[in-house]
Structures are given as structure tokens and as C-alpha cells.
Amino acid sequence: MNDNDKTVSAAEKKHPIRDYFRCFKLDTRSIATNSIIAAMYVALTYAFFFTSYGTPQVRVSELLMILAFFNPNYTIGLTIGCLLANIYSPAFGLTPLDMVFGTLATFLACILESLCRHMLIASIMPAITNAFIIAYELTFLSNMDFGGLSTSVFYWTNFGWVFLGEIIAVSIIGYILFFVVLKKSPGFGRVINAKRNLQFKW
Prior knowledge:
By secondary structure, this protein is an all-alpha fold. The chain is built from 10 helices and no strands.
């Protein structure tokens, strides 16, 4: 391999963080697309209201989180969608906390997903961020009766329920849906304006 080939190879090598920020745009298409995603997130959350809040929680709208794996720019729409959905959260009267901590968990999950190279691993990121952050919120930031349980036990109980709910919504429902659609209809990648990871294996 000559020097020119080495230069080309080096130039073609992808850098996760650089590629992440390069995907962000504020053009008309980006604004419109993120608005649609935010609206879809809110609509799905309210449509499945009975499973979207409380414990155990299986928020079907979270399956949209996988979009960030293909285009980090969707972090905007997903984060805004989560914020809007949490405005009317009835969970334990912690709406303001849900707006802050729930939205933060979604934002961090999108960042972590965009840095992954396998969709299955990416689908686990929302479970991790939500489990740690929301369990902390429910345990230490709410005036709740632990029912005789110690703070530590109550925290890990909440952690388990939140983690399980996210796994069902994202790693099972979302993963299977996106995997099947993208394998059966490769053109779907253009529909969702995928910028990366279209050649994922699993």
C-alpha cells in the first residue's frame, strides 16, 4: 500500500463523535422530520397511556428510539417528544421531575445509541439510561412510602422494572420491527433518512 492509499484509507476511517455531530442539521427537512418524530412519540405514548406511565412501564413509543441509531439528528425529535409526553405524566405526581430526568435519560440514550455499531446493543442503551436515572428519581426524589423496604432494595426494584419495560419496548418490539422492515425493504433506510449503520448485521 503506497502513501496515497494510506491517506485515502485514513480519510475514509469514520470517527464516531465527529460523525455524530456532522449528522446534525437545522434545515427545513430536519426540522419537519424531527417535528413528526416528536409528534409520533407523544401520540404513541398517549395511545398506550395505560402502559406508558407508572410501574411497571412499557412505553411503546420508545421503539422510535432506534431511529437515533441510524441518524443521530433524530435525537432532537425524540428528546422533545419525551419532554412533551412527560408534561402530563400522572406517575406519582412527579411531572416536573419526569420532564427533567426522563428527558435527560432519553437524550443520553440517543447519544449512546448513535455511537453503537450493532442495533441490538444500541437497543439496550435506553434500558440502561432509563433504569439508572428513573429508578433514582422514583426512589430518592419522591415522597413515597417504601412499604418497609430499604432504600437500596426499593432502588434496585425500580431499576429492574424500568429496565424490563425498556427491553420489551425497544430491544424486543422495536428491534424486531426495524430489523424485519429493513431486511425486507432496504429502501426503508431512505425513508427514515438513515445516515449510518445501514449495513448492520444484528
